[in-house]
Fold this protein.
Amino acid sequence: MLGLRARAGAAAHLPCPSTPPFSAPTAWLPRFARLSPLAALAPLASAPPPASLHGPARWGAPMRRPGTHSRPPTTRVFCTAPSSTTQREGKELLVQHLLVGEKDVRLLVDLEKSIIAGGADLSDLAVEHSLCPSKENGGMLGWVRRGQMVQEFEEAAFTAPLNKVVRCKTKFGWHLLQVLAERDQCVLQDIDPEELHKKMQDPSFLEEAQLIDVREPDEVAKASLPGFKVLPLRQFGTWGPVMTDEFNPQKDTYVLCHHGMRSMQVAKWLQSQGFKKVYNVTGGIHAYAVKADSSVPTY
């Protein structure tokens, strides 16, 4: 496809991804998942996940205590319902979990018992016991896809039936995880200014596509493109919570800013909200003016 390049950056293979910086409130999620919409304003160059998720496991002590012969728990799913990895190809999963150290086998067993037999909530247990930074959000990891996690965690998540607790072990320790929902993967792509310019010559494109400009009003006054609705990033707290009321997640959505960085932030956030196809204008309106339409002013 001319002018389009899939976003295929190399993903860090973590035991589980850190909480996405572009999460926003979702009405049906439990309270721990309702992150402040201001989280979407985190810069793309935000600090990486804590070192405990990148470096080698720091809980490498033997799990057996001297003089004991108990075997550590094995990875298994706590239900007999069938699951299929084939059915989940091309899917994203909404996952929450908790993490304990390798030597904390007794704690792991007690926690899973409290969930299965006692009806405890995994999110509450994560807040109290998890070693993962996601504990601040009740263990909520957000929407994840294949390739973002280490193999053991990924396989456990993608074979677990919805809402069933799964136990798995990675080099980071022992996890209890739960898949809360699944959906089709959303697409985030770049679009070159020249390709966008060609599309904009078609009146039907301007009617069918959703065009969003996230620059500030004073910037828009200097240069703008027809059909783009202005949603200043600084006013995200106003329009973010009602985005799915104003725009259709099923339609193609194009995001524009000055040089393509702020628009990428918003494009990633829209993807996290379930918008199926999101396009970031490479280089922003500056590149559009230089490469596609010289009648558009630069600033």
